[in-house]
Amino acid sequence: MAGHMYNGRETELLIPASSLEVLKIAVIFGADAVYIGGEAFGLRAKAKNFSIEDMKEGVKFAHERNVKVYVTANILAHNYDLEGARAYFEELKEVGPDALIISDPGMFTIAKEVLPDIDIHISTQANIISYHTANFRYHNGAKRVILGREMSKEQIKTLMENKPKD
């Protein structure tokens, strides 16, 4: 995010961590932040994901070294997912991540209700490719949007020229 510095750089080195061991290695070798998935509500179903206890240990380890931890909850939710998501976000209160990475507006709404003080980043899975959509997410409380992967440099430039003024 422009204007923010990470270990003297404007670019944040964000590393995916598929296990507690990978998280610790990423932290030790210089990640500014890591993102992890829980056992539910993430799109990396085949990855080895984190239990709540592993999340707690990983967040503690990272925070002791000034590294941030973001937790993915980026499924596109069905009605039957929503009560479980609420319970999961309640559990995350004890974990203390720095942000959640979310795609679905329903999941976003529940996260804001349950965890109002935790930043929400919009996942690349939400496929944000226009500044109107990015601005909509920002005005509804997102702290960061991860743009669609197919965007060109020129398209990103146009989006940045039309972002909200802080």
Can you tell me the residue ranges where pLDDT is under 50 for at least 5 consecutive residues?
none
Rounded to the nearest angstrom, the distance between the terminal CA atoms is 12 Å
Sheet with most strands: 6 strands, parallel
What proportion of the residues is helical, as a percent range? 25-40%
Shape assignment: globular
Radius of gyration: 16 Å
Strand content: 5-15%
Give helix and strand order, one letter per element, not per position: EHEHEHEHEHEH
The class by helix and strand makeup works out as: alpha/beta
Overall mean pLDDT stands at: 90
Strand order, largest beta sheet: 1-2-3-4-5-6
Total number of strands: 6
Q: How many DSSP helices?
A: 6
Write up this protein:
By secondary structure, the chain is α/β, with parallel strands linked by helices. It is built from 6 helices and 6 strands. It has a 6-stranded parallel sheet, with helices on one face. Helix 5 links the parallel strand 5 and strand 6. The longest helix is centred in the middle third of the chain and has 14 residues. The radius of gyration is 16 Å and the shape is globular. The two termini are 12 Å apart.
Topology:
Elements: E1 14-16, H1 20-28, E2 33-37, H2 52-63, E3 68-73, H3 82-95, E4 99-102, H4 105-114, E5 119-122, H5 131-139, E6 144-145, H6 153-161
Parallel strand pairs: 1-2, 2-3, 3-4, 4-5, 5-6
Helix pairs in contact: 1-2, 2-3, 3-4
